[in-house]
Amino acid sequence: MRKKIILASLLLVLFSFLSVTAASAAEPIPDINIDIGGQDSGQPGTTSLSIILLITVISVAPALLMLMTSFTRIVIVLGFVRTSLGTQQMPPNQVLVGLALFLTLFIMAPTFATMNETALQPYLKGDLSQSEALQKAQEPIKTFMFSHTREKDLLLFMKYTKMEKPSNYQEIPLTVMVPAFAISELKTAFQMGFMLFIPFLIIDIVVSSTLMAMGMMMLPPVMISLPFKILLFVLVDGWYLVVKSLLLSFNT
Q1: In a 3-state reduction of DSSP, which class is residue 178?
Q2: So where does this one cross the membrane (predicted)?
Q3: Cα dihedral sign for 157, 160, 165, 167?
Q4: Is the dihedral of CA 181, 187, 191, 192 positive or negative?
Q5: pLDDT tens-digit series, residues 157-176
C-alpha cells in the first residue's frame, strides 16, 4: 500500500511538472514513439527535438519540486536548526534533505490526492484529454500555493507582467504564482529561523561573558557553549517542536 502511495505521488509530481511546460506552450506535448530501424514519418528532426525537450523537463523537475511544494520552507528551517546549534555537518545534508522530502510528501498528500482524483485517474481512463487533465491538475496546486502566498508578492509579479486583475486566483498563471510563492516561503522560513536563533544566541552570550570574566581569553566560547546548546535542544525535545511548528505553519 505504501509503495502505491509513493508511486502515485511521484506520478503526480511529474504530472504537475508537465503542466507547467504545457501551460507555456501553444500546442500539447507530442507523443514520442521510438522505432528501432524505422523511419520518421514526420519532419526531419521532430522526434529528436521532442526527446530533447522531454529530457529538459525532467532535468528541471527537482527545481519545480522545491518551488511548488512545502520543501523550500522545510529544508531552510532545518538548515537554520543545524546552524544555530553550531554542529556544522551534524545532521548531514542527506539526512536533512531526506527528512524534508518525506515531510513534503506528508504535507502535500491531500493536494496530490486531489490531483490524482480529478486529473490523473480520469486522464489514464481516457475521460479527459491531455490539455483538460493538465488544467485540472493545476487547480489543487494553485490552491495550495495561493493559500501560502502573500498578496504583496503576487502583486509584484502581476504588475511587472502588466496583467489585468483576475477575477479569482485560478486565473493567475503559474509563471506568476510560482515565483511569488517561492519568495513568500523564503520570508516565512527566515522568520522561523530567526526565532530558532534567539535561545542559542543567549547561551553563546552567557558563556562568552563568563569566560571573559574569568580571564580565559584563549578558550573558544564555542567549545563550551556547544554541549549546553545540544543539552538544551535535547531536553526540550527540539526536533519534535521544530517539526510540529512546520506542520502547524501549513495549516494556517
Answers
A1: helix
A2: 49-81, 93-113, 194-218, 230-250
A3: negative
A4: positive
A5: 888 888 777 778 777 887 88
Phi and psi, residue 127, nearest 5°: -80, -20
* Alpha carbons 177 and 235: distance in angstroms, whole number: 41
DSSP 8-state secondary structure symbol assigned to residue 29 = P
What span, in angstroms and rounded, lies between the C-alpha atoms of 125 and 81? 46
Q: Which residues contact 134 (CB under 8 A, 6 or more apart)?
A: 15, 18, 19, 22, 23, 119
Q: Quick one: pLDDT band at residue 50, thresholds 50, 70, 90?
A: low
Q: Are 101 and 71 in contact (CB under 8 A)?
A: yes
Peptide bond into 220 cis (omega under 30): no
Angle at 70 between CA 240 and CA 66, to 5 degrees: 125
pLDDT at 60 over 80: no
170: DSSP letter: G
Query: C-alpha 213: how far from its chain's center?
Result: 46
Burial class of residue 167, CB neighbours in 10 A (0-12, 13-18, 19+): exposed
Whose grid coordinates read 475521460?
A: 127
Mean pLDDT score of the chain? 76
Instruction: Return d(Cα 106, Cα 70) in angstroms, integer.
Output: 10
